[in-house]
Design goal:
The complex is a heterotrimer. Chain A is an all-alpha fold. Chain A is 75% helix and 0% strand. Chain A has helices at 3-20, 22-25, 57-93, 95-110, 113-124, 128-138, 141-156, 158-165, 170-206, 218-226, 234-261, 263-269. Chain B is of the alpha/beta class. In chain B, helix 4 packs across helix 5 (125-138), helix 5 packs across helix 7 and helix 7 runs parallel beside helix 8 (187-204). The longest helix of chain B is centred in the middle third of the chain and has 18 residues, at 187-204. Chain B is globular. Chain C is mainly α. In chain C, 78% of the residues lie in helices and 0% in strands. Chain C has 15 helices and no strands. Chain C has helices at residues 2-29, 34-41, 47-57, 63-75, 89-124, 129-143, 146-160, 179-217, 220-227, 232-245, 248-254, 256-269, 275-284, 288-316, 318-321. The chains are: A mainly alpha, B alpha/beta, C mainly alpha.
């Protein structure tokens, strides 16, 4: 374990806890409007100020954290399942199947992901569920390539040959021998995937293509804030800071995990 | 006057939490101009560190003590700038793996000529090419023009090592350090490179420092054999055959030379391993593997005496004690 | 070499076909269907352009026939007409292309220039304060949401100190300027967008250059270069640098889709008249032909960038050049 893992994991757990216990941390309803205190700057009652409808920004951000965390985790799970499946099949069987899958990956990599996402959202309609599915469907290529490479290299190792020699079934070989070896790198990619998904979701919500008002997300709080950058800096500053800190934490965690699972890199750092 | 003089040279590697590794311990050696010496021993005995100390090519985590005098100047005390006037000029080096030692993205032409330009300040393209071609011819390359323009990956292993040799000799150094020069090559190519080194040694009157684990090769090229064990010189003598050697370790090295006349097919090794070089002990480091080890060997550490570091040396000229 | 390039060119064909299949599939297989969702959601469509659309995609024909027709149009860059103003999609996309290319090329130049410098210097001073600082700095850039940074900078430069333009590619009086002033004006408008893009992209390049520089500095050929007695500066800045920078050329191709794709959020904020903004605008008005056109064009640009990068790499790396 290293400092980066501890810092990143602590921050990530903190964010998840904050999202889970949102109702306990704030006494304001995220959708309760109070037009008497529109655009009020931060004070003791509303620590991050209020928005253009007099809603408490801090409460909205707490509920927004639920969106970010859910989208991040679900989207990554979807992409991991697809990526692991494609990567493992391509790496294990090789040959023609491998060729077909890798060409498909090439094609996916050629279409800029955000454009693809934009197109899919336009056709499927903007909603939080669609955003999760679409991010998952468009971000599995890295993980597939990684798994494929790992499976191929593990397949060459002696103990897999040995396992095959003593007559173990293919499924047993994959589950008992290949999988444990590639779990580390998968964790690393999933962690970076979460931060990527959070970033994408917030960008889409910011443009009105993600989570729809009145439900808050960090991105759509910023959308409203954009129109008030002259008067209400807190509506821009705090939600953006939250996105940044969330992304930064998961990136640090990913970075730490990468060092942890990569002994060669660890030696270099010494 | 001796061209190389090494005085109580010790090299330690810092291994972080794993302590300190004593790769070389108190090595003393004098080499006369034109003399050829071979440093032999198993891997891990310190001979590679020895080779790198000669022109101070030591790793960043190493610490060297003592002196390495080349023409009377201490190499270890020199700055990087001063070393540039030693490396390639007084002593050229060729390495074990020529494919890895040549830079893959520069042509042979560039790699020879940059050395000549750096040291001899020759910048004229025609003269540079003449010198390069001449060096390639001297190292026995046949298609000089093609090799001159080629990139390393376009050459065979033997050609690559010849090119390395041409580079090492491009500024006419008097000393040639050959660090396992044939280990990475095919057997037939090995023989060609050995022949090349023999010829160059004679023609250029080189002082050859050969580092090798192959005693056979050492005997072929050098009259004087320096045997190293656990970071120390254990024998330093003119050796032509097994009966010339006195140290039990040297004799053990002779025993494991594969002999094609004998009906023995398996690879033979000396039983046991080179001890970890982390501790300084008051005993003979070879005693656990030694056939002649006696009481004295575990009580005190032997010193060099008459060219051998042993309490119970073999007598010269006799196979058994 | 010729063989390599030929092989590389042939590899484009399946990818191009794949792009058309995916775009086609999204249009035709998504629930609701292309034309229906279009009619429901977009009141601006005239029956006339609807007919044209039906003809364009031949929606009454079997799927495979529709696909080949669409492919044939694709080959001729015929993406149909915009629902909004009935102009050919290709025209609309092409007029946005220069702004996107300008922003991306300038950003890429800055990213590679700074990234290489940071990477090399960090490799030479690894584990120093400088190295750690640069790692953190580029890492922050990598994690910061570009659109938020854009808003913050707009706050700073539009509200507090109005010294840098925060919107568009030209000033309002652009037409009255001389050519030189116009060039300066565009550069002036590029500063903030390029800064934000570059800040985000630095981590990737500098990290890559750093590790590949460290690797070449520890290779046997570098030790051999020292043994030759070459000056240290030459060993580092000529020999080792060339080895570590050659593969960076391929990164140029790999970083394109991210830059082009990332640009639409960001072009929207800065009102940058590029392809990303066009894609967003057409998405908001359900102008399908234009969305399809921009996506296809973005994929095409990426493909082209990758191809150029691969071929340049083959040209500069002797191991491929003389195989």
């Amino acid at each position: 374990m290293n400092k980066m893992i501890i810092t990143g994991a602590a921050a990530a757990i903190f964010l998840i806890l904050a999202a889970l216990s949102a109702p306990l941390l704030t006494s304001y309803d995220y959708k309760a409007q109070d037009l008497n205190i529109r655009l009020a700057p931060p004070d003791a009652k509303h620590i991050f100020g209020t928005d253009e409808l007099g809603r408490d920004v801090f409460s909205r951000m707490l509920y927004g954290a639920r969106v970010s965390m859910t989208v991040g985790i679900i989207a990554v799970l979807i992409s991991a399942v697809i990526g692991i499946l494609f990567g493992a099949v391509a790496g294990f069987f090789g040959g023609f199947i491998d060729n077909i899958i890798m060409r498909f990956v090439d094609i996916m990599l050629t279409i800029p992901t955000l454009f693809l996402i934009l197109m899919l959202i336009v056709f499927l309609g903007p909603s939080i569920v669609n955003v999760m599915i679409i991010i998952g469907l468009t971000s599995w290529t890295d993980i597939a390539r990684l798994i494929r490479a790992e499976v191929m290299s593990v397949k060459k190792l002696a103990y897999v040959d040995a396992a095959r020699l003593i007559g173990l079934k293919r499924r047993t070989i994959i589950l008992k021998h290949i999988m444990p070896n590639i779990l580390g790198p998968v964790f690393v990619y999933m962690t970076f995937g979460i931060s990527g998904a959070i970033l994408t979701e917030s960008g889409l919500s910011f443009l009105g293509l993600g989570v729809q008002p009145p439900y808050p997300s960090w991105g759509n709080i910023l959308t409203a804030g954009k129109d008030y950058i002259h008067t209400a800096w807190w509506m821009v500053f705090y939600p953006g800071l939250a996105i940044f800190l969330a992304v930064f934490s998961y990136n640090i965690l990913g970075e730490g995990l990468r060092d942890y699972f990569n002994p060669r890199l660890k030696r270099e750092n010494k | 006057m001796s061209i190389i003089e090494i005085k109580s040279l010790s090299v330690d590697y810092a291994l972080g939490q794993n302590g300190v590794l004593h790769a070389l311990r108190n090595v003393n050696l004098e080499v006369n101009a034109g003399e050829s010496i071979a440093i032999v021993g198993e891997s891990g005995c310190g001979k590679s560190t020895f080779a790198s100390s000669l022109v101070k090519l030591l790793a960043l985590n190493s610490k060297a003590a003592g002196q390495v005098l080349i023409d009377g100047n201490d190499v270890l005390a020199m700055t990087n700038r001063e070393l540039e006037a030693i490396r390639g000029v007084k002593a050229g080096t060729i390495f074990q793996d020529p494919a890895a030692s040549l830079n893959p993205v520069f042509s042979v032409k560039e790699q020879i000529e940059e050395t000549i330009t750096a040291h001899l300040k020759v910048r004229d393209k025609v003269e540079l090419k003449q010198r390069a071609i001449k060096l390639l011819e001297e190292t026995g390359i046949k298609e000089t023009q093609r090799v001159y323009e080629a990139y390393p990956h376009q050459l065979s292993g033997g050609q690559q090592q010849r090119v390395m040799t041409a580079i090492a000799l491009s500024c006419s150094p008097k000393i040639l350090i050959a660090d396992e020069p044939t280990t990475a090559l095919d057997v037939t190519v090995q023989a060609q490179i050995i022949a090349l080194l023999k010829r160059l040694k004679k023609e250029r009157n080189l002082t050859l420092i050969l580092i090798t684990h192959d005693l056979h090769l050492a005997l072929d090229l050098c009259a004087r054999i320096i045997v190293m064990y656990a970071g120390e010189v254990v024998e330093d003598a003119e050796i032509k055959s097994e009966t010339d050697s006195k140290h039990p370790y040297t004799r053990a090295l002779f025993e494991i030379i594969p002999d094609i006349n004998e009906d023995r097919h398996e690879f033979s090794v000396i039983p046991g391993e080179v001890p970890e070089l982390k501790t300084v002990m008051n005993e003979c480091y070879f005693r656990n593997r030694c056939v002649k080890a006696g009481k004295k060997c575990s009580e005190s550490h032997p010193e060099m005496e008459n060219g051998v570091r042993c309490f119970y040396p073999y007598t010269k000229g006799r196979l058994k004690a | 070499m010729k063989q390599y390039i030929l092989k590389r060119l042939l590899l484009i064909i399946p990818v191009l076909i794949g792009i058309t299949v995916i775009t086609f599939a999204i249009v035709h297989l998504t629930p609701g269907g292309f034309v229906r969702s279009n009619m429901e959601m977009n009141v601006k469509v005239s029956p006339d352009s609807m007919e044209r659309l039906k003809v364009l995609y031949g929606l009454d024909r079997p799927l495979y026939e529709q696909y080949f027709k669409w492919l044939w149009r694709f080959v001729r860059f015929d993406f149909g007409e915009s629902f909004i103003d009935n102009r050919p999609v290709l025209d609309k996309v092409l007029e946005r292309l220069p702004a996107t290319l300008l922003l991306n090329i300038v950003s890429l130049t800055v990213i590679f220039f700074l990234g290489i410098i940071i990477g090399v210097t960090s490799a030479l001073k690894r584990n120093s304060f400088y190295d750690r600082f640069m790692t953190l700095f580029t890492f922050i850039g990598y994690s910061v949401p570009a659109f938020w940074l854009a808003l913050i900078l707009m706050m700073v430069f539009a509200v507090k100190w109005p010294i840098l333009p925060v919107s568009g590619i030209t000033s309002f009086n652009f037409d009255m300027m001389s050519a030189g002033e116009q060039a300066l004006d565009v550069m002036w408008h590029l500063i903030l967008p390029v800064f934000i893009t570059a800040f985000g992209g630095l981590a990737y390049i500098s990290r890559y250059v750093k590790s590949s520089m460290i690797e070449s500095l520890t290779q046997q050929y570098t030790i051999a270069a020292y043994a030759k007695g070459l000056p240290e500066n030459r060993i580092i800045y000529k020999n080792a640098l060339k080895n570590s920078l050659l593969p960076v050329i391929t990164l140029l191709g790999l970083s394109l889709p991210g830059l082009i794709g990332g640009s639409f959020i960001f072009e929207t904020i800065f009102a940058w008249p590029g392809m990303g903004r066009l894609a967003y605008e057409s998405a908001m008005t359900f102008d399908y032909p234009v969305i399809m056109g921009t996506v296809t064009m973005a994929a095409f640009l990426t493909l082209l960038g990758n191809l150029i990068a691969d071929i340049s790499y083959a040209l500069v790396d002797p191991r491929i050049r003389y195989r």
